[in-house]
Amino acid sequence: MTSRLAALRARIGGYAFGGDYNPEQWDRPVWDEDVRLMREAGVNLVTLGVFAWASLEPEPDKFTFGWLDEVMDLLHANGIAVDLATPTAAPPAWLAREHPETLPVAEDGHVFGFGNRLQFDPTSAVYRDRAARITRALAERYSGHPALAMWHISNEYGPVAYTPSSAAAFRAWLQRKYGDLDTLNDAWYTRFWSQRYSAWDQVCPPEMPRSWSNPARRLDFTRFTSDALLECYTAERDIVRGYRDDIPVVTNYMRFYQRADYWRWAREQDAVALDIYPDPGQEDSRVAASLNFDLMRSLRGEPWLLMEQAASAVSQWRVNHPKRPGRMRLGSYQAIAHGADSVLFFQWRASRGGHERFHSAMLPHSGTAARTWNEVAELGRELPRIAASAGSRSRAQIALYFDWDAWWGLAESHGLPRNDFDYPALVTEHYRPLLLAQHAVDMVGAESDLSRYRLVVIPNAYLVGDQFTRALDEFVTGGGTVVCSFFSGVVDENNQVRQPAYPGAFRELIGAYIDEYWPGRADEEFAVRFADGTACTADWWQESIHPETAQVTARFTSGDLAGRPAVLANKRGAGRVVYVGTRLDRPGLARTLLGAAAGAGVSPVVAGAPEFVEAARRSTDSVEYLFLLNHSGIEAATVPVAPGGTDLITGSQVTGPVTLAPLAVAVLAYRK
Ligand code: GAL
């Protein structure tokens, strides 16, 4: 069976291009101009109705679909497909007024009032009932509409609530997980500080504690919250699917979003969709953007949807810089290079009022005279040239571990040797040298199949489960290479220290034990020397390492642990493990990771390109597409590539090395 995403692609005929369209913010005559300009810009898909609950149901059960009927018809008449949203991310004022119990309550008991959005408790039965009613009404009315191409459920799921309803749902979740209280008491190690529970009704969400609360309880509440939000999604998904089964149902994810375990969520969706807003004020934000794109592709191992990006400035930073000319185009191709099958924006027309009135749009306040409009419309007209590459896939030989349990373990755990771990930042530091050396990288989670990779990189996985520990060991003994960073494999799924320590899960894997963690002092740097004489520095973290089967490949040459191991290499079965027991500086980490990649026989996508060139491959059974992106705003770059391809954007033949002007993009197609 073709996937629902493939069906959407076939209908669109290539890359989806468009964005959030909020006609309810505008009077009727504006809509005609909207569709005329959409056609001019090559828009083929718009997301409709994301925040339209109050316009669709101004009073309970009184639906006003007339305006939406007209918009759907108008879009269809102009050949524009619709990604129709359920509006449940922004409940109307009447719900807050009549049912204040639907509002979320923070950890400290503070109730979030009406006037923003996402003001709902995901466990509230009343909220879920009202969300189901509007969803059903929309599905009933529009499932058969010819414009409908996809369902967009709610928007950026995120609220957490410390309410009586949340407490009841949390208890039910725990009962399903642990069965009885003794098991829960053991898992939460409640023998510490007299926290033992003797009846289920004593168990609550971890409200604001006097000082520090139980780390296993916090961890479970975080897992529960991700599941409660996912239930809101699946409830609405099942309703719309009941009316029509052949179109994709999605919701939109956020960049490095801590509250939802997207590995679990991705299984419940027809496609992964991402909203991304790299800060144009920070040149380096392109590294984390590519990492997030690779994560999105890896979650389902297939193309994904870039659901929202900004045409230029956003309105969420302290200072909101515009994207310099050419940057929006480059960022759009960057997403495509990493597997996106769409370029969609928030939003079509810039709002006149409301919080996001200065957020850029495809059609800015100054209309078609604006620079942004021209760049958007040019991109919309250009994308059809690379349409054949939509739907193509990629496969890397390097896997980078990114796991929500590992993240939550660090984030929900006060009382660690240091309490300022920034998991996404640490993962990004491991990704950076691979990206800058034009390596292809997939992300993996605790349940991913590792057998297809040559190198697996495990950054700071403090918490690991037994299943992953076993899978990793099998991968190594079977001949794989692992690079594992400090403070990994330390605790089990219940946030309890694995023994014998440390790292209880990985002691045999790394071939050493650690008897003490030794965080660095502020501004302290340690000199590190590799066995071949190369030197670098490290900071932030050290460990007192005792090799058992491992060889020492680098030692500290200054500081408290001078002379002691900093980096190890261990042979295990047919494989090899490099353990990095400190935070190496960028050259030190790059050398370690690139050395491991070369040792594992992994070649980059292109060789001999400067760091500011990004390279990625996508392929189908018959064609390979090579994407080359020059991120430098000032330097041109020449990239050695094989002759014989076609540059899809210019139509020219590739006869030798390709030269990319600053910010230029090339998409080269090679027949296999
Ligand atoms: C997204 C959100 C949109 C809009 C946008 C602005 O996170 O889904 O509704 O607020 O940010 O950047």
Question: How would you describe the overall organization of this protein?
Answer:
The chain is α/β, with parallel strands linked by helices and 672 residues long. The chain is globular. Bound molecules: beta-D-galactopyranose.
Features:
single chain, 672 residues, alpha/beta, 10-stranded mixed beta sheet, globular, binds beta-D-galactopyranose
Secondary-structure blueprint:
Elements: H1 4-12, E1 16-21, H2 28-40, E2 45-48, H3 53-56, H4 66-77, E3 81-85, H5 93-98, H6 125-142, E4 148-152, H7 164-178, H8 181-187, H9 215-243, E5 249-250, E6 252-254, H10 262-266, E7 273-275, H11 285-300, E8 305-308, H12 327-337, E9 342-345, H13 371-382, E10 398-401, H14 404-411, H15 423-436, E11 441-444, E12 455-458, H16 466-477, E13 481-485, H17 507-510, E14 512-519, E15 525-530, E16 535-539, E17 541-547, E18 551-556, E19 565-572, E20 575-580, E21 583-584, H18 586-599, E22 613-619, E23 623-630, E24 637-639, E25 646-647, E26 658-660, E27 665-671
Parallel strand pairs: 1-2, 1-9, 2-3, 3-4, 4-5, 6-7, 7-8, 10-11, 10-12, 12-13, 13-20
Antiparallel strand pairs: 14-17, 15-16, 15-18, 16-21, 18-19, 19-20, 22-23, 23-27, 24-26, 25-27
Helix pairs in contact: 6-9, 7-9, 11-15, 15-18
The structure holds beta-D-galactopyranose (GAL).
Query: What is the overall number of helices?
Result: 18
What characteristic shape results from the CA principal axes?
A: globular
Overall average residue pLDDT: 97
Name the strands of the widest sheet in spatial order: 11-10-12-13-20-19-18-15-16-21
The tally of strands reads 27
| Chemical compounds bound to the protein | beta-D-galactopyranose
Tell me about the largest β-sheet.
10 strands, mixed
Secondary structure: helix percent: 25-40%
Q: For the terminal residues, how far apart are their CA atoms?
A: 25 Å
Taking Cα atoms only, what radius of gyration do you get, to the nearest Å?
A: 26 Å
Structural class: alpha/beta
Unreliable parts: none
DSSP strand content: 15-25%
